[in-house]
Request: fold
Amino acid sequence: MNKLNRSSHCDKGDVSEWSERFGGAALVTGAASGIGEAFAVALAARGMDLVLVDWDRERLEALALALEAEHRIRAEAVVVDLAQPDAVQAVRAGTEAAGLSIGLLINNVGYGVYGPFTEQDPVEQAGMVDVNCRAPVMLTRAFTPDMVARRRGGIVFVSSTAAYQPTPHFAVYAATKVFDLFLVEALWGELTRHGVEVLGLSPGHTRPTRFSERAGDPVSNPPGGVARREEVVATALAALGQKRSVIHGLRNVAVAVLVRVLPRTVVIQSTLRYFEGLDLACSKVEDDARDRPRPPTSLDGRFARAVARMLIAFLAVSFIDLVVCSLLTHKLRFWFPAWIDARWDSRPDSWVTYSQSYVAGIVFIPMLAAEVIREFVPKAAAAARTAFATGTVAVLAFIVWWKGGLMLQYHKEQEAVAWVALTAVTWGLIRLGEKLPARMAGVTPLRLAAGLARGVAVFFLVMAVVDPVLCVGVQGLPWSKGLIVEMGFFVPAGFFLWALARRLSTDVPEVQCEGAIEGNIAGET
Reply:
């Protein structure tokens, strides 16, 4: 163990609010890069003294000096490899020699190794257990008693979204992160009543970190997306003291929920096929175009396809509402029928005509089911595929029976014929949507999200003008409370989304196939 010694203390003035909250300095493991470095920067900005732990002397000492100079805090660099048996004792000795009391412990250090289990180095596999599991346990055991005695303190474990599913080719790494997640949630139950704030943080892929350099991770565009390390740290610090665990990113939350709902066998085999497919794709890139960078794209994920389908679904329903119902009722109709017929809600059968536009969504049921089977249900799981397909057919038959019966009851045969004709149009639009991802090949998910936010913002602002014009100007209806409330929502929501779109407009840096980065790891990689 080597410590960066300094004889002088950086003057800060009064103790910061965060130092007072936790009763001491913050200890960050894996602090030389990645999420650990982002934690160090964020906590220094909040006025906390720091003990920074990592094996990379040059980067660690440079970071400590920079944080002291910029934030006028004290930053002690403890250079140690946490894979070593005596590492925790060395860290404890370093903090005591510096005269610092630890009030906030960030167990961030960790690393992973990608590849088939039987082909991985057994020394590396044991090292993952040491660094990802043993070191955080021992560090927490070393510093928690003082926090309990003070009745204040904080502990953060950086786990991973890999903790929510068995992950072939990342088997040992994912298992260590399950260990971290379960441990921190159990500690939350034990220590919260003693005034110690405990949080488990589960990020997905994050940049920039050094994870892929050691892990050999081939993932360049994961289903959960790629986050910036500063965003991940902001999520953690906001949730600390409020939740026992947090997953960064709505897409990562959705993936975590999905893998818990699906049968475990389906999840495992789908993950295996996913990684094996990436191995083949990256091998082809290396063989055919070794020096050609791969542009950032959402094509090899599901995001662009999902957005394209949602856009086409919206256009199809809008087309049916605006054109078909207007033709069948001989009245101009847009979005809400009360605009063109004040007595609409008092007519006994008109709701059937209105609800007919939703019947067009039936065509999406089999298509969605086919996509789910293709993505999540492996071909080997014949029983699961049959059960899912049978359930889909049953749902489809029920909806056709239900809506078809209503149409016959209210003599809406013409509308039914029109719906059948428009099915072909809807199918054509969906086919067009399937080609959109290829045209989005150069669009990053972040830029795509910015475009969606901007489009919805324009829609809201336009509707804030069109609604009153159609209702009051064209139809001659009086101003209503509902119209005022609607405008009160459209205008601020539109400006908010426009501002959000501008903030998201900064593109994500380019990612190479061989240099993909997962960010649940920060410094020990």
